[in-house]
Amino acid sequence: MRLLLVLISTIALLCACSGEGGPNNPAGTFSNESAPPPLFPFQKLSRSGPQSRSDGHLRSVAVYTLSNGASRNKVVSFVSHGGAEKYDQSFDTGGRGDPSVAGTVQGAIAVSPGDRFLFAADAGSNEISSFRIGDGELQLVGKVASRGMQPVSLTVHRDLLFVLNAASSSIAGFRITRNGRLRPIPKSNAPLSGSGVEPAEIAFDNSGRVLLVTEKATNDIDSYSVVGGVPTGPSVHAASGTTPFGFAFAPRSENVVVSEAFGGASGEGAATSYSVTPPNMLTPISVSVPDGNTAPCWIAITRNGIAFTSNTASNTISAYSIDAQGDLTLTNGVSAQTGMSPTDLAVGRMIGRSSCST
């Protein structure tokens, strides 16, 4: 059976994902030899491919996050050896972060298929930085304008990358070239449902034919049909619960699980599963299944259909099962206790008995 490694970013912060904003506390600059900076919930934890030993056991997993510094933005790498995580080194993006969005969005880092390239959102300078992933280090390839204001979330499917620009309430598309640079796609800009909607995340479905964006202020979910890298939409769908936030697609299906923070109301956290049917249908399956915790904001789903939510204000992780039909069932309201205010999640794979490590 597989051993699930759940990697969690934490910071002393109450319910940043409720829509009330995050801490106004930028991470400072630091060198490779300095202590690691605090991890802001703004960051998406992405992993490079597991480096397996010849005996089939996991040797290490690389995890990347952002410093989100207002003057200099950096990608910070960590390496997990058998579940023990240590600070590795940092890499300058050449852009600037925006601490004002800390705790309000998900997906500021994305990794290309095959773990060849890493892309980082520079929300303070309206840019996207591209890195080539090498042995133990990142090489900056270049950066491009995000074609909007305040890029906060990225999603990749094959050679396509889309960015969510929060301040301009828009999305934009790029082609990933062979060397990892980003080339703007003509006519790929599209608006959200309106202005001031407080978007949280953008992501492709598993087919790459649909884009979803969650809006916290409107309690809506936007869907876009994507053909040839050009989106059509949005089609606007009312979310089943309040404050739709992070989401993830179940493997090998077109079912998606969306966390619902309910404005940070105590004990009211929930999640809803939906089926996604191209070009623009979003149909609820299991509606607002409660986890009994406060402010579930980020979602990660394992390959065998276990959905984890990080409950920012309860300092816990909840576990749901999602079956092939998309039915969502709470299996453990408190699957794990965490440090202060768990934020983003990433799931790795190891070989062994089934368990969860935080």
Quick synopsis:
The protein has no helices and 29 strands. The chain has 358 residues and is mostly beta strands.
Please outline the helices and strands.
Elements: E1 2-10, E2 46-47, E3 51-52, E4 58-66, E5 74-81, E6 84-92, E7 109-111, E8 117-122, E9 127-133, E10 138-145, E11 151-157, E12 160-165, E13 170-176, E14 182-184, E15 190-191, E16 199-204, E17 210-215, E18 220-227, E19 230-238, E20 244-249, E21 255-260, E22 270-277, E23 281-290, E24 296-301, E25 306-311, E26 316-322, E27 328-337, E28 342-351, E29 356-357
Parallel strand pairs: 1-29
Antiparallel strand pairs: 1-28, 2-4, 3-4, 4-5, 5-6, 7-8, 8-9, 9-10, 11-12, 12-13, 13-14, 13-15, 16-17, 17-18, 18-19, 20-21, 21-22, 22-23, 24-25, 25-26, 26-27
Describe the structure.
It is a single chain. By secondary structure, the protein is an all-beta fold. The chain has no helices and 29 strands. The protein is globular.
**Helix residue percentage:** under 10%
Large-scale geometry: globular
Distance between the termini: 19 Å
Count the DSSP helices: 0
- Tell me the Rg in angstroms: 18 Å
Mean pLDDT: 82
Largest sheet, if any? 5 strands, antiparallel
Instruction: Please trace the helix and strand order, writing H or E for each element.
Output: EEEEEEEEEEEEEEEEEEEEEEEEEEEEE
> Regions with pLDDT < 50 over 5+ consecutive residues?
1-16, 18-56, 349-358
Strand content: over 45%
Which structural category fits the helices and strands? mainly beta
Give the beta-strand count. 29
